[in-house]
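worker-3 :: picked Helix-turn-helix domain-containing protein
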Amino acid sequence: MKNNELKNGNCQRPAGKCVQCAILLAILKALHIDVELPQNCTAAPKPHEMHLLLTRKEVMGKLNIKDSTYTRWVDRGILVPRIMGTRHFYTEDDLGRAFEESKRKGKR
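worker-3 :: tokens ->
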């Protein structure tokens, strides 16, 4: 295992990468597609954003949605969480983008 990789259960992912980036990189590697790796994942929260992050429950409260709706919106890509470990976090900008996208598609 290289120094820039972390051991997470049965999988390995580059340090500083979110789960989505790690999955995409694994797929590209399996397809023998070389890509230049960014230093840090752009989805990872910046240090100055840490105190501004909203949890899953806070987002559900702000959007007035139930757990099943939240899960469905994440699965459909309406909400794109910043994942740290197994927890989902969002900034106000993330929610604004999700709201604009759902408005554009005629939802909510």
